[in-house]
C-alpha cells in the first residue's frame, strides 16, 4: 500500500493549504478524528475531495500503533516515499537474518562485509534521500550517495542510526533539512570532516563561473578556520568551509561530481556507464589532476582502471567501496518513488 498520507501532505503543501512539516501533519491528523473531519470539510469545501468522510479516513488515515521492539520504534512510521526504504535497526528475527545476508553478500562480492552498514544507514532515511535527489546539479542520487558513504558523514550516519536509546528522535518526525543537524559540528557541516570537499573555498569561484553552483557566501557557507595550514596528503594547501546545512553540503559535493563527469566526457576516453562511475569516485578521492593524468594514458576505461589498480591500489580500493554502496542502493530501488494518485 503506497503512502497516501505523505502524498496528501505534499499536495496540500504545494497548493499552499499547509505549511508545517510532515511530522506535524501526521501528529495533528492521524488518529485524531475531530481534526481529520475538519481537514476533510475544508478540502470538500474547496472541491479537493468529493467522496464521503468515511472514505477519506479509510483512504488516507490509519491509527498509529505502538510496537514492542525498542524505544526507537515506539511510534509506527508512515509507509515510505521511496520503494527501497527500510529500517535495519529492528530487533525481530527476520530483520536480523536479512542483515546477516547483507553482510555476507558485501563480503563475498566486494571483500568488505561491514560495508552493508554504510548502505543501510543511507537506505533507511527518507529525508536524507530527498536531499540527495534534490542536489542542484541533478547528479544521480545513487552516485552522490556512493560519494558520501565513504566520507565522514557516512560513518556518522551509521553511528547515529545504530544508537538505541530513549532520547533518539525518529527521522520521520524531523523537519526536512534538519536531519543531520544533531550529528554535525556546531550545527554546521564541516566540508573536511563530513563530505570531503576540502578545498571548497578555493574552488567556489571556478564552479560558479562554470554554472555548477548557485550557493552564496555567508548565506550558505563560510570559511572553516583550521589551526595552522591545512595541507593534504599531496602537499596541496586546502581551504575548507562550513556549510549551513546538509542540503547545501550535498549541493557542493554535486558541483565536484559534475565537474569530474565533464572532465571524463571531454577526455574522449571510451567508457561504459560502470567504468565512468568508478572513475568519478577516483577523481573525487584522488583528485582531478590525478584523474586527468590517468585519462591521458589510455583510450578506454577498462585499461585505465587496470592501470590505477596496479599503480594506486589504495585509490582503486576506495572507489570499489563507493561502487558497492551505490550498486546496492540501485538494486533495492532506494531512490525509486512510490507512485500514487490522489483524487482531486
Low-confidence stretches: 63-78, 163-186, 340-344
Task: Describe the strand arrangement of the main beta sheet, using strand numbers.
Answer: 1-3-2
Helical content band: 40-55%
Give the amount of beta strand, in percent. Answer: under 5%
Notes on the structure:
The protein is mainly alpha-helical and 344 residues long. It has two domains: 4-64, no CATH class; 93-331. It is 53% helix and 2% strand. The protein contains 16 helices and three strands. Helix 8 crosses helix 16 and helix 15 (301-311) packs across helix 16.
Write the layout of secondary structure elements.
Blueprint: H1 4-14, H2 22-29, H3 33-45, H4 53-60, H5 93-110, H6 115-123, H7 126-133, H8 141-149, H9 152-162, E1 189-190, H10 191-195, H11 200-209, E2 221-223, E3 241-243, H12 246-267, H13 273-286, H14 288-295, H15 301-311, H16 313-331
Antiparallel strand pairs: 1-3, 2-3
Helix pairs in contact: 6-9, 6-16, 8-16, 12-13, 13-14, 13-16, 15-16
Compact summary:
This protein is mainly alpha-helical and about 350 residues long.
Please supply descriptive tags for the structure shown above.
344 residues, mainly alpha, 2 domains, 3-stranded antiparallel beta sheet, 53% helix, globular
Amino acid at each position: 500500500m503506497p503512502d497516501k498520507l505523505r502524498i496528501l501532505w505534499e499536495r496540500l503543501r504545494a497548493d499552499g493549504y499547509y505549511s508545517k512539516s510532515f511530522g506535524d501533519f501526521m501528529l495533528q491528523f492521524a488518529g485524531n478524528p475531530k481534526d481529520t473531519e475538519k481537514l476533510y470539510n475544508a478540502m470538500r469545501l474547496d472541491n479537493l475531495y468529493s467522496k464521503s468522510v468515511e472514505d477519506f479516513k479509510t483512504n488516507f488515515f490509519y491509527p498509529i500503533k505502538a510496537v514492542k521492539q525498542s524505544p526507537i520504534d515506539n511510534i509506527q512510521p508512515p509507509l515510505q516515499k521511496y520503494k527501497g526504504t527500510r529500517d535495519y535497526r529492528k530487533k525481530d528475527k527476520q530483520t536480523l537474518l536479512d542483515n546477516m545476508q547483507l553482510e555476507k553478500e558485501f563480503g563475498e562480492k566486494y571483500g568488505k562485509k561491514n560495508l552493508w552498514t554504510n548502505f543501510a544507514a543511507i537506505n533507511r532515511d527518507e529525508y536524507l534521500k530527498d536531499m540527495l535527489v534534490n542536489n542542484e546539479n541533478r547528479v544521480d542520487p545513487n552516485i552522490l550517495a556512493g560519494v558520501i558513504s565513504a566520507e565522514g558523514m557516512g560513518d556518522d550516519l551509521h553511528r547515529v542510526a545504530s544508537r538505541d536509546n530513549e532520547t533518539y528522535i525518529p527521522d520521520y518526525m524531523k523537519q526536512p533539512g534538519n536531519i543531520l543537524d544533531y550529528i554535525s559540528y556546531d550545527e554546521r557541516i564541516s566540508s573536511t570532516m563530513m563530505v570531503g570537499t576540502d578545498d571548497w573555498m578555493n574552488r567556489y569561484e571556478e564552479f560558479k563561473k562554470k554554472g555548477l553552483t548557485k550557493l552564496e557566501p555567508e548565506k550558505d557557507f563560510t570559511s572553516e578556520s583550521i589551526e595552522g595550514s591545512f595541507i593534504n596528503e599531496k602537499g596541496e594547501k586546502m581551504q575548507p568551509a562550513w556549510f549551513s546545512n546538509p542540503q547545501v553540503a550535498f549541493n557542493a559535493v554535486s558541483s565536484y561530481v559534475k565537474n569530474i563527469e565533464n572532465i571524463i566526457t571531454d577526455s574522449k576516453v571510451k567508457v561504459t556507464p560502470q567504468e565512468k562511475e568508478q572513475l568519478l569516485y577516483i577523481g573525487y578521492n584522488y583528485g582531478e589532476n590525478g584523474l586527468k593524468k590517468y585519462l591521458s594514458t589510455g583510450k578506454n576505461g577498462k585499461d585505465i582502471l587496470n592501470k590505477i589498480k596496479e599503480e594506486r591500489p589504495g585509490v582503486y580500493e576506495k572507489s570499489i567501496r563507493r561502487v558497492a554502496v551505490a550498486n546496492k542502493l540501485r538494486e533495492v530501488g532506494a531512490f525509486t518513488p512510490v507512485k500514487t494518485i490522489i483524487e482531486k
